[in-house]
Each structure stands twice: as C-alpha cells, then as structure tokens.
Here is the input.
Amino acid sequence: MKGYHDIAGDGGSRILEQVVEKQTRIADGLAGVRHLVAVGSGKGGVGKSTLTLHLAGALRARGLRIAILDADFNGPSQARMAGVQNAVFVPGSHKLSLPRTVNGISVFSMGSLIPESKALEFDSAVQGESHTWRATKEFALLGDILGSCEWGTLDLLMFDLPPGADRTVQYADFLGPRTSFVLVTIPSEVSRGVVARSVAALSKGPNRVLGYVENMSGYYCRECDAIKPLFDSADASALDIPCLATVPFDPELARHCDRGLPLELRDTPVGRALDHVAQQLLHRLESTTS
Amino acid sequence: MKFLCVPCDTPMKLQTVVPPDRGSLSVLYSCPECGYEIAMLTNAYETQVVQSLGVKIGPAGGDATQTASAGGCPFPSMIPGNGDVKPAGAGETIPIRWTAAAEARLTNIPEFVRPMAKTGIEKFARDRGSNEVDEKILDEAKEFFGM
Here is the structure.
C-alpha cells in the first residue's frame, strides 16, 4: 500500500501549493525593499510606535524611501499618529496603493480600517477557542498585507511590532532572517528586564539585532530648552547589545501624535536624538549587510 | 492530507466541497480507478485550522459552488461598508458604476480593504461629478492622494 510520500500532490485541495504561492507573492512584493527593520521591545508602553514613526521621519528627512507596516493589529496606533486614520485606499494596477504621511512615508495600519471603538475580532468556526488559532490568523493577515500592498522600491520597510517577547520572536520567525531588529526600552529596570528577555530569545535565531534605543531618557522642557530627569536610573545596567541612542520624551510630540499632526523636530534635542538613531541604524545596517 | 483507495492503491481525487455548515466542511473525494467515493467531514476545530491559513479549498479550477472560501475577509463584521457596519458618508443614493477594468483592480486588493476602498473611491468620483469609476479615476485618485 502506498504511503503519504509515495503520492505526488494532495488530490486537488492545493493547500500546500496555496501556502507556497502566498510566500512567493510576499517575497516578490518585498523584492524592491532594501532593508526590513522591525521595531520591537517585548515591553508595552515604551513608545515603540512613536519612535517608529519619528525614526521613519528622520530617515525620510535624509532622503530615504520609507514605509511603515503597523503590525500591532490589536492595538494599531500608526494610523492616528501618522494622520492616515481616514485615508482613502486606492487599488493600484496590481496591488493596493498605500496612504502616505505629509512627509511621504507610506503607512499601512489596521487603524485606518477599524474604528477605535472596536477591538479586532476574527470570525471563527469555533466559539470561545480563539487562543488555539489566533496567532495563525494574525500571521495569515500579515502575509496578506505583505503580499498585496504596493511596497515598490524602498530603502526601509519598518514594522511596528506589538508588545511581548514571545510575539517578537514569532515575528522574527515569520518575517525571516532578512529582518533586522531594533529594540526599545525606557530607563527602568523593569523595562530593561523584559527587553533583555527579547534579546535572549532573538539571539537563538538568525535575525540581526542592531541595537536598542533608550526612549524617554528624561523629558524635554521646551520652556527651559533643557532635558530633565524622568526616571531615577543612575545605576541601571545596560543591555548586552549596542545602544543606538537615547531619546528624551517631548510632551509636545505626544500631543501632536494624538492629533496625527507632524511636528517640526529639527534643532530640538528630540530631533537630534532621532537623527542620531537614524545615523546609527543606517551605519549598522550597511556594515552588517553583505 | 491525502486519501488512498486501498483496494486500487490509487490516490483519490478531490471532487467538490460543500461550504461550512455550523463549522463543518464536507469534502468529497473519489477514486479515479473504481469511482468509489468518500466524504471527509471536518469538525469545527479542523475547519478552523484550515481557515486560519487563509486558503481556498476545492478542486483546481473549480467554480464558487465547488469551492469553500476559507480565505477572504477574516473579520467581515468589523469593516465599515461590510454588513451592518456603515461607512462614513453612507446614505449616498447616487449609484456609482465600476467599469470591468476598475472592478478587476479592486479584486486585486485584500478583501478586508475592499469595502473602504470602494467607498472612498466612489466619493472621490462623486466629488468630481462622475458616476463611474474607471481606471482613469483610480489613477487620478492615486495622484491626488500622493501615492
């Protein structure tokens, strides 16, 4: 009697073929993207999304072609912050054309599709068992987005990841070894501890971890034009990966993010810090790319 | 998963799929040698596993009646313009026609984006005094929105 491997094909269901077709479509769609960079942490509330958007802005200001994929499907915030919450999606000649920020960054965020009054719920054949298949659904969705958006020719496609050290590794697995990681922490031992777990988890795979950004390293007082302390972290230990830069918190920037309005950051400590992150990021990407 | 007709030692071929009914798919296979038929009846968990992959199940080249769409919009009830979720600007009564070429472009984009894309483009067309969406309107919209 024949065994599984003696039979070519699958009798017509083409499930494996369709999965391979999807993977090919993703690879083709990303062929024009020079670098894939995922911004993660493991810890929630450290400013990953804000940093992603404004780091993208700093890279854009250097003349690079940038897109952001908001991969936090359950808490998408890029749509609001980037000002594309009510964007019009236009079918391109073969794929979906993406809305852009005023400074020309393409953005895909579920926040442009699903009102903030709703939580993302997948339709299911099984009620009350979402924990058994939710991740598969989310990654199938991510694959659909990657394969059906017009990414075109980009210098960087940045992924704004959801929190969770385990999730960070799942995204690394899904996005593959082409994707480099930047981790975000804040000057607290709790945050560093969680991010250290992400570093440890990522170190077991093939993805490059370019370094970390210490966000909210003090706050920028516009009245005094000075950086003031926000956390008491004088003797905090550093993570075992390069520190790309420290970025102070700017309450004015937070206000603008809430409204989806751009803020001119040039000649401010925050702007200079973000430009330094951009410079370090590019330097490390180029120096580790064959 | 593959099915083997044991008496003929021949792989069975998928014939047709009955779309999910209360979480169960019915998938009919037959033996190309002896014509013997079997049906694989999935439970809701098994159906969910396949649906989570976002693939379609059915014979190659099969039409909609032979294919169970396990792909499509994974959250149809949440998207404005789908079902009872009204998009902004809903209530417009002037019907907008889509040319075949424009409609084809719409089908190239993810199913969960289509309702919003359709609504937005139709508003764009109306604002320009057009009651038709063609490829020219789509290209104008791309340019207008800086894409």
About this structure: The domain at 35-288 of chain A is CATH 3.40.50.300 (Rossmann fold). The mean pLDDT of chain A is 90. The longest strand of chain A covers residues 209-221.
